[in-house]
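Methods: holo model generation. Sequences were used as deposited, without trimming of termini or removal of tags, and paired with ligand SMILES retrieved from the corresponding compound records. Each pair was processed once, and we did not select among multiple samples. The sequence and NAP SMILES for this entry were:
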Amino acid sequence: MQQQVNRQILLVKRPIGVPDESCFKLVTSEIPRPADGQVLLRTLFLSVDPYMRGRMNDRRSYVAPFQLNEVLTGGIVGEVVKSKSNNFVEGNFVAGNFGWQDYSIADEKEVRKVNPEIAPVSTALGVLGMPGLTAYFGLLDIGKPKQGETVVVSGAAGAVGMIVGQIAKIYGCRVVGIAGSDKKTKYLVDELRFDTAVNYKAAPHLRKALKEACPNGVDIFFDNVGGDISDAAISLINNNARIPLCGQISLYNEVQIPMGPRLQPRLLTFSALMKGFIVHNYADRFDEGICQLSDWLKEKKLKYAEHIVQGLENAPKAFIGLFAGDNLGKQIVKVS
Ligand SMILES: NC(=O)c1ccc[n+]([C@@H]2O[C@H](COP(=O)([O-])OP(=O)(O)OC[C@H]3O[C@@H](n4cnc5c(N)ncnc54)[C@H](OP(=O)(O)O)[C@@H]3O)[C@@H](O)[C@H]2O)c1
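and the model returned the structure below.
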């Protein structure tokens, strides 16, 4: 049923440590009207992503902080319900960056069309969206996988990690996933053809467990998590290893970043490359990435999983759940 008001979720308090629901507030406003060159979108799905935690701090980063008492924003997939643009008609599905709300106004240049014939439209937030592109460019551009190499990926059962592992398999690598439950590690091996997977929460000695899982050492470590997991993986690198530095989720809620081992001697000794990246660095190649990921989906070389929470009002809970490992695959909120 169509909402008569526009429900919106605001950030009302900056979290210290792990966010809780008191940081968020649901309010209502009027449904906005599009002007010429604009469309009105009804939000179908919205994405909650770990990087949003960084935007909740009042700190300089690669993207501006969220402002207090303003609507949170992120990736959404919406349906055009009113169009004053020549490029879109009612019923078109589109993706873009908009508010955590039922309705958004979009300039025609701010949205891209989503083709529902390729895959369900929610995938524009996951495998065929920002996380899929992150996996694609981070692994291929920085990791440069070669047949027979060992690739370790942390956060392996998440939106980025599960695509990284599968692309590495397509390139003929031996793939080892690290994830936080037996259900997740079983999924990686049974469903996604990872060679093996380690449950870091159940391994009393993570380095030992990882060493057993990587008898030939580690050629590529795709780092989604940071902290102790990274320390263990980096301690096993081979000569000329590559480390795409994608995320550090284990540190996002830390008030004081814990001191780890000094890595430079190891990187130096093993002639290793560690390179941080932001997916938007590759914006001019997004079409290439989406095209290739879509082809792999069609050819059934790539699978994806989505963890869908129902209802805009549950978006904060879905976001907070990322830090407890609630999701297997892309965490998405179904709004309408
Ligand atoms: N560089 C970029 O442009 C870019 C773009 C997208 C994402 N990222 C980063 O990539 C990483 C993965 O993002 P995603 O969207 O794919 O998220 P995700 O993996 O789908 O969800 C987060 C997962 O992280 C794991 N996790 C949470 N807290 C943890 C902790 N303290 N220690 C270890 N694991 C923890 C949980 O899985 P477990 O059950 O396995 O613990 C959770 O399910 C994040 O760090 C994110 O910031 C970077």
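The first helix runs from residue 51 to 55.
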